[in-house]
Amino acid sequence: MNMSRRQRLQLVRGGIYALTIAALALLIISVDWGALGGALFKWDVVKKQFPDILTSALRNTIIFTIFGFIGGLSLGLLLAIMRLSKSRPYRWFAATYIEILRGVPLLVTLLILGFGIPIATGWSWPNPYLQGAVPLALVAGAYIAETVRAGIDAVPRGQMEAARSLGMSYTRAMVTVIIPQAFRIIVPPLTNEFVLLIKDTSLISVLGVTERTLDLARFGRNGVNDSANATPLVVAGLVYLALTIPLTQLAAWMERRSKVGRR
Amino acid sequence: MSEPLVELRQLHKSFGDNHVLRGIDLSVAKGEVLCIIGPSGSGKSTLLRCVNLLEQPTGGQVFVAGVELTHRDCDIDKARRATGMVFQQFNLFSHLSVRDNVTISLRKVLKMKCAEANARADILLDRVGLGDKASAYPAQLSGGQQQRVAIARALAMEPSVMLFDEATSALDPELVGDVLGVMRELAEEGMTMLVVTHEMGFARNVADRVIFMDGGVIVEEGNPSQVINEPREERTKKFLANVLEN
Questions:
Q1: What letter does residue B193 receive in the DSSP assignment?
Q2: Which pairs from B224-233 meet CB under 8 Å and 24+ separation?
Q3: Nearest CA in chain A to B92
Q4: What is the mean predicted confidence (pLDDT) over A50-79?
Q5: Residue A263: pLDDT band by 50, 70, 90 thresholds?
Q6: pLDDT: which is higher, A127 or B121
Q7: In this predicted model, what pLDDT tens digit does every residue of B226-235 receive, in sequence order?
């Protein structure tokens, strides 16, 4: 009991390591790897996923993501400017919109807009892509609005004053001076929004999209039904990773660079 | 004397309960260099920022070049072109090169052609001694260089009066001289200038008139040698004693 604090810590840490290794070893011995591999990564099922998983499912996921992002970015910019406006009704509208669409799960919003509205009004979505992408963009807009607002807030106040002192109107100063600087600040968080959006497109399949608009997640699920094997879902997961990992790495790199960079 | 270029009448400004300017009357003639001195919190920066309405006065009138900026129907964006402002923190646009900092208002406000705007920028940058830095970015420059770019940027709009808000207070001591040198040349060329400063040497040698502010009022004004060397008011004496001691 004459151990120093440091020695005791080392002992505890050693114990934790030993236990973890033992648990892992037990897991490795007890699992039937052949059966598991057969159920999760069966090679001939993997081969059957291609090329459709890329030419159709991946393509649809990208279409939904890009539409959702461009729509969300435009809407987010508009909402952020309204949120910072001097006019109270604008601020109030933007704040309410953002609160509601961030507060309701995307799944519920998708169902309300994708099914609820058509049932209630008799109106139907002209295009199955829009049925999924529009709700996605409306929700993304609410999240992106907060990111953009934070970016605009992070631009020093003196920039607006300098621009106004040169005779620029508020709008002109916003467009030529404030927003370009805000975007530099928010490129990393915006990239993360993009990654979230890629994953959120998987929820669109609850709308029972047509054969033509199958996204990666639904493609995987259909594959499971066809092959009575979980492999298609694993392949779909890997394709998602192939999209998201480069992007998160890019965001991290940009964040590091902006810290040592010009400002 | 002809009509003053800048005129303030019974100017008041409050921030909530804080009454920062308490009825300022001031006129500045064309070509005059006016230095405004006083302790911090005396309202001198607020006064300057009311001249181009970066601060909206709570009472009184502001006239610049014959236009009443405080009038309800005044197009403030247009009226501000008559004034150029230089800030303590430079406030250069960090996403633009030095040249673009100078030309942006020409291109976006006056809709000037790029080539013409660049030509004017190059002349101005030469004038402040930074002709070779046109394609650098603000963060690559020293504070003194940045402030000289800021002066060139303000001059680009060909203002009839220049406002300097503690333009050298954020600079390292060895960089102050370059900026003051540019300001002195500007004064010698006949530019009308309102200069809020702690540089007593500049006030004494360059100003045509000095005003001392404290507590939101003009306590004392006169020619520089009189105000700085032989102040009449107790508050002025005390302030100068503190400043000149250091």
A1: E
A2: B224/B35, B227/B37, B228/B200, B228/B203, B228/B204, B229/B204
A3: A159
A4: 91
A5: very low
A6: B121
A7: 999 999 999 9
Query: Which ranges of B62-110 would DSSP assign to H, the alpha helix?
Result: 76-79, 98-108
Over residues B204-208, the mean pLDDT reads 94
Q: Does A155 touch chain B (CB under 8 A)?
A: no
Q: What is the ipTM of this complex?
A: 0.93
Share of chain B above pLDDT 70, in %: 99
Residue B7, beta-bridge partner list? B27, B63
What's the confidence (pLDDT) of residue A213?
Answer: 82
Cβ distance A180 to B78 less than 8 Å, yes or no, reads no
The neighbour count for residue B4, using CB atoms within 10 Å, is 18
Please list, in sequence order, all residues whose beta carbon lies within 8 angstroms of the beta carbon of residue B53, skipping any fewer than 6 positions away: B62, B69, B70, B76, B79, B80
Residue with the bigger pLDDT between A44 and A25: it is A25
DSSP class of residue B209 equals E
Residue B77 φ/ψ, nearest 5 degrees:
-60, -40
Asked if B87's CB is within 8 angstroms of A167's CB, the reply is: no
Measured in whole angstroms, the distance separating CA A91 from the mean position of its chain's CA atoms is 26
Does residue B112 belong to the interface with chain A, where contact is any CB pair within 8 Å? no
CA distance A93 to chain B (A): 28
Tokens of A91: 């601020």
Closest to B106 in 3D by CA, of A181, A155, A172, A160 = A172
- Facing residue for B91 by CB, picked from A162, A180, A263: A162
Give kind and range of the element (H or E) at residue B84. Answer: strand B83-86
Kindly state whether A258 is in contact with chain B, defined as any CB-CB distance less than 8 angstroms. Answer: no
Helix (H, G, I), strand (E, B) or coil at B8: strand
Q: Does A168 touch chain B (CB under 8 A)?
A: yes
DSSP class of residue B110?
A: S
Q: Distance of CA A253 to CAs A33, A47, A187, A199, A250, Å?
A: 38, 34, 11, 21, 5
The predicted structure's pLDDT at residue A128? 84
**Dihedral sign computed on CA atoms, order B123, B126, B130, B131:** positive
CB contacts < 8 A (A, B) = 67
B149 and B128 Cβ atoms separated by less than 8 Å: yes
Show residues of chain A in contact with B137, CB under 8 Å.
Answer: 262
Token pair 């928010």 is at which residue?
Answer: A186
If pLDDT is split at 50, 70 and 90, which confidence band does A255 have? confident
